[in-house]
Write a structure and sequence with these properties.
glyoxylate reductase (NADPH) activity, 353 residues, glyoxylate reductase (NADH) activity, Rossmann fold, seven-stranded parallel beta sheet, D-isomer_DH_NAD-bd, gluconate 2-dehydrogenase activity, 12 strands, five-stranded parallel beta sheet, 34% helix, alpha/beta, NAD binding, 15% strand
Length: 353
């Protein structure tokens, strides 16, 4: 499927694929019927810049994976400045797109899409696992059993946990993932589910969750599930000042991005007992995580496994192709990112259906 430089120029629109594809080969083969697919073989960022001037000089769409950042670096203003004029869309394989700077793309009229629906269920499942593990002290009990303490103490000496019936859950960010978390938590019988969003949802989308202000969510929640994107406004938005307004012993669950939380200030709050427990799939400087944080008994940690499942990965990879195909056939990607909702897009389709 890779096109060499000696291949005659194709009349099909050219799509550059950056990063490895594991499961969606059939879907990409379908796209290859209407587009020329070129795999990025640039070994590093500097060579990528050069190749964008030569063998990638006429690509119209770029697909990138989360881990391709190791090959090209972030899609920041510097990298975007090397894009040929032909580039009209970038499709990122992930819900979070903090590896891509939206502003320089928007300035050049380049659409950015992310993956939405396919990540909602697996990420929400992960949040439920982390929430129950921290609420019931399951991870602490497991660790104590491994250490051989069960024969000498009930439940290995783990402290009593709590049942959902006594707990108010606050969901910070009620997009697709936040709503999927809510739907999975409702059958457990929590005392109340509240949420904060940039704007209140319709009653149909709220589905029984109560809209509150940011300060009310922070101060009223026994458990806070973080489900907001990482950007300049949200980086370190959970910090010492915000934590001080939370209930003593609050549980934090993070399946968004690690840098939403100031990790050093989180660590101190966990050691002080202000935060009762922390369940997280993401960390500020992952895969490097302070060992002191990982070693705390009231921390349940995962190495970014939210979508680490065969079906999830396949669905995500295929969704990227759907974004590219819709762009080629309609002039607009399927799931343009919120920052570009107001962008004036009037592109002619590149492929006739």
């Amino acid at each position: 499927m890779t096109t060499s430089t000696s291949t005659p120029r194709s009349s099909k629109p050219k799509v550059l694929r950056v990063g490895k594809i594991d499961f969606a080969q059939e879907k990409w083969a379908q796209l290859a019927q209407v587009a020329e697919i070129v795999d990025c073989d640039s070994p590093n960022r500097e060579q990528f810049f050069e190749d964008l001037k030569t063998k990638y000089s006429d690509v119209v769409s770029i697909a990138r994976t989360f881990y391709s950042v190791e090959q090209t670096g972030r899609f920041d203003a510097e990298l975007v400045s090397h894009f040929p004029d032909s580039v009209r869309s970038v499709s990122h394989n992930g819900a979070g797109y903090d590896q891509v700077d939206v502003e320089p793309l928007t300035a050049r009229g380049i659409q950015l899409s992310n993956v939405t629906v396919p990540v909602e269920a697996p990420t929400a499942d992960t949040a439920v696992y982390l929430l129950l593990s921290t609420l019931r002290n399951f991870q602490i009990g497991h660790d104590l059993a491994v250490k051989g303490q069960w024969p000498t103490a009930k439940c290995g000496g783990a402290a009593l946990g709590h049942l959902p019936e006594s707990q108010t859950v606050g969901i910070l960010g009620m997009g697709g993932i936040g709503r999927a978390i809510r739907d999975r938590l409702k059958p457990f019988g929590f005392k109340k589910i509240i949420y904060y969003n940039r704007k209140q949802l319709t009653p149909e989308l709220e589905a029984g969750a109560d809209y509150v202000s940011y300060d009310e969510l922070i101060s009223q929640s026994d458990i806070i599930c973080i489900s907001i994107p990482l950007n300049a406004n949200t980086r370190h938005s959970i910090n010492k000042e915000v934590i001080s307004k939370m209930k003593d012993g609050v549980i934090l669950v993070n399946t968004a991005r690690g840098a939403v939380i100031n990790e050093s200030e989180l660590l101190q709050a966990l050691k002080d007992g202000k935060i009762g427990a922390f369940g997280s799939d993401v960390f500020e400087h992952e895969p490097q995580v302070p060992q002191e944080l990982l070693d705390l008994p009231n921390v349940v940690s995962l190495p970014h496994m939210g979508t680490h499942a065969v079906e999830a990965m396949k669905n995500m990879e295929e969704f990227v192709v759907d974004n590219i195909l819709q762009f080629l056939t309609t002039g607009k990607v399927k799931t343009i990112v919120p920052e570009q909702y107001s962008m004036d897009i009037a592109l002619e389709p590149l492929v006739k259906t």
